[in-house]
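User: Hey, my collaborator sent me this sequence without any context and asked if I could get a structure. I don't really work with proteins. Can you help?
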Amino acid sequence: MSTKVHKSNKGFTLIELMIVVVIIGILAALAIPRFMRSTTKAKQSEAKQLLKQIYTMQHAYRQEFDSYCLNGVTASAAAPNAFAQIGVEIQTTARYTYVMVAAANTFTCTATANLDDDAANDVWTINETGTLTCTSNDAI
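Assistant: No problem. I've predicted the 3D structure and written it out in structure-token form, which is a compact way to encode the shape of the chain:
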């Protein structure tokens, strides 16, 4: 009687595992910077949306009182009701600080934040004509 021993080779070799680790590393190196850029761009939507709301509410205020308001006022998460005169409230989770410069016939509101903890700030402005401008882009 002969007994046959069947050897079962189950599992992965060390080289196969190393190849998989290298492939995952390459994919991560490509995906992580894109993900970070996408999240930074998503954070910028706060400034764009709020500046457009400020533009609308400043025009509504001017229609009623013949002048723009809030010259020199700064609003942020720490001072959420600073723009209450025009009906704009800053959320307590806001990343940006908003500074208003206004005169009788003109205004400029500037939103500033450091979105990704580097040296550059993200800066957006809007004026009385509704021109929304990014003067310093922290997402690139």
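In plain terms: The longest strand covers residues 107-113. You can pass these tokens on to your collaborator as they are.
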